[in-house]
Design brief:
This protein is of the alpha/beta class. The chain is 40% helix and 21% strand. α1 runs parallel beside α2 and α8 crosses α12. The radius of gyration is 20 Å and the shape is globular.
Length: 334
């Protein structure tokens, strides 16, 4: 099949590399506002260069991957749907929840499939955790712990446009908690601090946060996030039930050092970036998209899914700002 890619920045170029290695993908058509980025991708992956998103959609593509800046997501999703081309779009759907809801309304009723990029759903550990919950082998759940720690903060310009740590970073935890447990979040309470880069505080954001989520069956989820984890990129989850407990991310590249006498775990070189930690998950995610394009699979992460994670991020942002519990219904109705 022939796949178009809109946006050849860090994640777009990474997707181009991944797609070029998939058996199902015969050719790529790429476009980026920066001509050098598109040219570099063309030279590296043998892609065809188009001068605009419209030109990509008109180039006979079977599916399109949106890896452009967030502000462009709504228009590009709509354009792909109007052209009848299945679309994969990196999260978020839009910069604001209001815009995201408008995108959903504008495409409802269309048969064109849309997949939103939440890569943890395709990581082998998280897939196994979901299966363990679904089979009931853990018993009734009581506690979930989810962690995302970046090795270093992004640049100031990125922070200023990110929407805040809950919308940019912790939203991955919110999505994967919903997906693994199969439950919805009803209420949150969030706290945050600034012990690192001054520009994060100046942007009105926190660099380290914690959030308590109450799920609709009474399970408690604890989410920890930070822009500062010098040892590496740390993504983990613990799921505790009345019958058994399991963990995702306890492997030799875990960026954590034990000080217990005689303990040598973890023994490997720590993960240092999300592309390192989730290389295989991204490959599985884009493989899934080729199946969506082929019509052999329904979207594994819909716009509705992405918006649900977004509402949790909105609630946490409000909770942090006002120092109080916030229900998901409150932010939906705001």
């Amino acid at each position: 099949m022939r796949i178009g890619i809109l946006g050849l920045g860090r994640i777009g170029a990474f997707h181009a590399e991944t797609l070029s290695g998939l058996d199902a993908v015969a050719s790529l058509v790429v476009a980026d506002p920066f001509a050098d980025a598109a040219k570099a991708a063309a030279e590296r992956f043998g892609a065809e260069v188009a001068d605009s998103p419209e030109a990509v959609l008109a180039a006979g593509v079977d599916g399109i991957v949106v890896a452009a800046a967030t502000d462009a997501h709504p228009a590009l999703i709509r354009a792909a749907v109007e052209a009848g081309v299945p679309v994969f779009c990196e999260k978020p759907v839009a910069r604001t929840m209001r815009e995201g809801v408008e995108v959903l309304k504008s495409v409802q009723g269309s048969a064109v499939p849309i997949q939103i990029g939440y890569n943890r759903r395709f990581d082998a550990g998280f897939v196994a955790a979901r299966a363990a919950v679904q089979t009931g082998e853990l018993g009734k759940l009581h506690t979930v712990r989810s962690t995302t720690l970046d090795p270093a903060p992004p640049p100031a310009a990125y922070i200023a446009a990110s929407g805040g740590i809950f919308r940019d970073c912790s939203v991955h935890d919110f999505d994967i908690i919903r997906w693994v447990t199969g439950r919805e979040v009803t209420e949150v309470y969030a706290v945050g601090g600034n012990r690192g880069a001054d520009y994060i505080k100046e942007a009105g954001d926190a660099d380290t946060t914690g959030a308590i989520l109450t799920l609709d069956d009474g399970t408690i989820a604890v989410v920890s996030s930070s822009r500062h984890n010098a040892r590496g990129y740390d993504v983990r989850m613990e799921i505790h039930g009345f019958t058994d407990s399991i963990a995702v991310g306890l492997e030799d590249k875990l960026p954590l050092r034990s000080v217990e006498p005689g303990v040598t775990f973890p023994a490997g070189t720590p993960h240092d970036f999300f592309m390192d930690r989730f290389t295989e998950a991204y490959r599985a995610e884009l493989t899934a998209f080729t199946e969506v394009v082929a019509g052999t699979r329904t979207s594994p992460c819909t716009i509705e899914d992405a918006l649900e994670a977004g509402w949790i991020a909105e609630a946490c942002t409000l909770s942090l700002g006002e120092h109080r519990p916030v229900t998901i219904e409150e932010v939906r109705q705001a």
